[in-house]
Amino acid sequence: MLKKTLLATVALMSLAGVAAAEDLKEFRVGILGGENEADRLRNYQCLQDDLKKEFGFEKVSLFPAADYDGVIQGLLGGTLDFAELGASGYAKAYLSDPKAVEPILTTVQTDGSMGYHSVMVARKDSGMTKVTDIKGKKLGFADPDSTSGYLIPTVTLPEALGGVPIKEFVASTGFGGGHENLVLEVLKGTFDAGTTWASGVGEFKDGYTSGNLRKMVDKGELNMDDLVELWQSPLIPNGPIVVRSSMDADMKTRIKDFFTALPKTDAACFAAVEGGDYTGYAEVNVDFYKPIIDARKATIGG
């Protein structure tokens, strides 16, 4: 009798847990740093509205972090339900707690690829035309948790520099405080060159089809005639949309379906959130990011 009572109690507690998970009153969205806060909130306003309409949430809260780590820590602490991360940011979260979040989708470029590039830019009037011209110069990175703005250059740049470690090749390195600010600091002369992200699809003169350069061009913050590209990395896996792992399985599926349909149901919102031209989303899982996880573990650690 006692055993049956205990089993019944456990069953009821499980059902209560499922009901609570499915009855989310507030959906908490983390937004990576790297772009000024007002622009980020404006770009996500449509998503906030669409989520409330689709799921009936009483509240969809947007949390624009000052940097990448702010969102990562929110996901690890369970105070965020959803975010779109860079691959290295996801790797950091995974290495800290592999059970905290699940990658569900990533963007697809207009050429069908699911990757992008780290690009190094300098002022066009600097006289630099190739990556080895940064010898003895000041090199800026975007953010310590950025894939294209730090991890991939750290791993792949030495080969382009003739096997010489970056810090032995340049005079100094530093961080720009996000991708947008990094490019602005290059233009101001704080750094002689800097690394940011771009699709690598289309033309450099347009800021490519998507990425930080394209976002800045579209906002009128950047004239591509002022920049020159010195280097482009190998293809990097596009970052994942992740959800809190403890979220109910049905809700995860509904979130995945909502975003998969978003390019058709609200194309303008899809473009605003992603910042440029993409064809849509594709499903991914942790295996897609294993090379980045391994690279981060070997190069930076957790």
What does this protein structure show overall?
The protein is α/β, with parallel strands linked by helices. Helix content is 43%, strand content 22%. The strands form 2 sheets. Strands 2-1-3-11-4-12 form a 6-stranded mixed sheet, sandwiched between helices. Strands 5, 6, 7, 8, 9 and 10 form a 6-stranded mixed sheet that branches. Helix 2 packs antiparallel against helix 10, helix 4 crosses helix 11 and helix 9 crosses helix 10. The longest helix has 21 residues. The protein is globular.
* Number of strand elements: 12
The topology string of helices and strands comes to HEHEHEHEEEHHEHEHEEEHHEH
The number of distinct helices, counting runs of at least 4 residues, comes to 11
Instruction: Return the average pLDDT rounded to an integer.
Output: 91
Helical content class: 40-55%
If strands are numbered along the chain, what order do they take across the biggest sheet?
2-1-3-11-4-12
Structural class: alpha/beta
